[in-house]
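Example 554.
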Amino acid sequence: MLRGLIQEVPLLISSLITHASRHHGDAEIVSRTVEGPAADGSGAIHRYTYRDAHKRARQLAQALARLGVKDGDRVGTLAWNGYRHFEAFYGISGMGAVMHTVNPRLFPEQLVYIINHAEDGYMLFDLTFAPLVEKLAPACKGVKGWIAMTDRAHMPKITLPNLLCYEELVAAENGNYEWPQLDEYTASSLCYTSGTTGNPKGVLYSHRSTVIHAFAAALPDALNISARDVMLPVVPMFHANAWSLPYGCAMVGAKLVFPGAALDGKSLYELFEAEKVTVSAGVPTVWLALLMYAGQEKKKFSTMNRTVIGGSACPPAMIKTFQEEYGVQVLHAWGMTEMSPLGTVSTLKAKHLKLSKEQKLAIQSKQGHNIFGADMKIVDGEGKDLPWDGKVFGDLLVRGPWITSSYFKGEGGDPLRLDEKGQGWFPTGDVATIDPDGYMQITDRSKDVIKTGGEWISTIDLENIAVGHPAVAEAAVIGCFHPKWDERPLLIVVKKPGAELTREELLKFYEGKVAKWWMPDDCVFVDQLPHTATGKLLKTKLREDFKGHKLPTA
Ligand code: AMP
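Predicted structure in complex with adenosine monophosphate:
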């Protein structure tokens, strides 16, 4: 081998914050805290720069080292999107320890399992979660200290033998700290999947995978972020690294705005306007609330020009509303915790620009094309490749330098499937089509697809049609037992406030939009739909709730 003569500089997470501090030092990081004076619970605004964050991240690294945290040790967080959480992203990983973001929306038993499985030595937490921490602590014996992310004046009134104060720890250090030059394959962070069945599984990222993923995420045909942007990640930092935004924004020097705990439509809208946010990112349920607020209050966005939507399928009706009524371009993205998380984004190619609005919308509604670094394919039950014709659907497999090879501690089985060349592909559990231009469209999670008389029906397609009805706020479709066909689609709907709509009207709305045998057999209205800890429809619960439902066609 003739070796290239290029400097061997490892790709490290600390290099992102070092770069942001040196080259975009005065770009702001603005956070709504949870400690503020506001009576409605939304906190005061904290404002500083990448330069300040870099210093405090190093102080945090020094503080953790003083507590005895060593290379590879796991340090957990239970926190909203905010500046201290951002410091933890860099301080913990940067020093060579493993940043473990824990999703506080999970059930306490799951949290205990995750914290113990990860063997978190220290846990950082936001004040909101003080009562939760008090509950968890007795079952998490390995945690040597619970660090409240606040100052002395706001310390929670809970009794824990090993309660520490973040600001005191940080203030005791001077920040004169050199980031260690780690091997870029060193583990940097850990995030557990929010599986609805079985124990959560740990995905262990490396410095290298995180930095390469951040490069790819920032590209124009991915999340398209730059130094001229103001990014407000609504997606939580505990949900798949907030889709890389804490890293990608530092890489490009974008201003960051963290919303803290105030994720309702009104608070978000006000922050978008006050901080002149240009781009945001979140799951469809968040945008549903924001659009509802903006619609009722007749608000428009003065600076926001685009938003990333992913985590579950974004209904075409939502894309259309954002784009046509608010002038906000939607970037529909797909990925998963095991993929760091980005796999595809649905941006248009040059040849699409001349298409009609409706044709463009149809492309944008797909989950999109691979961003460089991630590759994908669809296979049949025997693992044989299926054609990219946009019609045939199969199991979606992925491969790339930021995609998991196995779960933490090997628990979760050996996930990879080897192809004929011996290369490992990760089965996503999603069922999809890929069209000749490489645009992938998810038809379902394989567990959710409706199997009726040997044929498959996509629940996402049926849900998208329902939310296209002006009176529908949210919809879920599940397979319901049918004595002849095994399963038939049952539509479960939340109406918009004050809207009038009958079962018959909604079922009729499907006519001409899908094949006859795809039409839902029944429709029920509910006040709300259950969601997972990451905002997806909780279909296991719906299937449980409607187990005894008798279809009129049965
Ligand atoms: P998580 O690891 O919690 O982010 O969940 C990953 C799963 O969410 C994927 O395997 C998909 O089933 C689903 N998902 C994520 N983004 C999308 C999307 N844009 N459309 C449909 N499903 C999605």
